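3-methyladenine DNA glycosylase: structure, please.
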Amino acid sequence: MNASAEQIRQHLIDTQAGIELLMLEVPLQPVLTPSGSHPVEALPRIVIRQMLSLVVSRTLIKRAEDRANELGCRLAQLPYEMLLECGMSRSKATTIGAIEAYYQQYPQQMDNWQNLPTSALLNEVTTIKGVGPWSASILAMFHFAHHDLFPIQDSSLRKAIGLLKDRDILVIPERAAPYRSYLACYLWEFLDQARL
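Here you go.
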């Protein structure tokens, strides 16, 4: 992907009728780049963030990271009971344990995730018990920098699309290809900036 942030924004303006003024009111979204951290480190943090406010999720992640640092292990290696003590729900603690178990059983497969196309990556990641399409999509977008992915299951994106429809702006994610991830980022930004 060699397009600049400006070219991507222009593509979205060209493919999403009526969205231009909103796009120009919010900060230019940067080009996605791989995070550089290993997925066994990134995926538990994504799971923790799901359905929680930024403040709460940061607090839980910090507690778990501090505990992991004390023990000299990674967050996903924390025992179930310790994750609960850090404030994780039972389902999140179970999923984090499943991520670690997957890595222990299939380290080469997880190491190869960076080489997978989007659909194969989503399929592989969601084989881990408790990891759903939303978490897999966020991993693909923000950890591996997949540029053409629109996580329609995200409730905030559905809300933004609905609010835009109320303004007679019809968002059609398929038209944003090959930059659907950026369309999602702009829609999230519209909500964050209270533009809708």
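Notes: The chain is about 60% helix and 0% strand.
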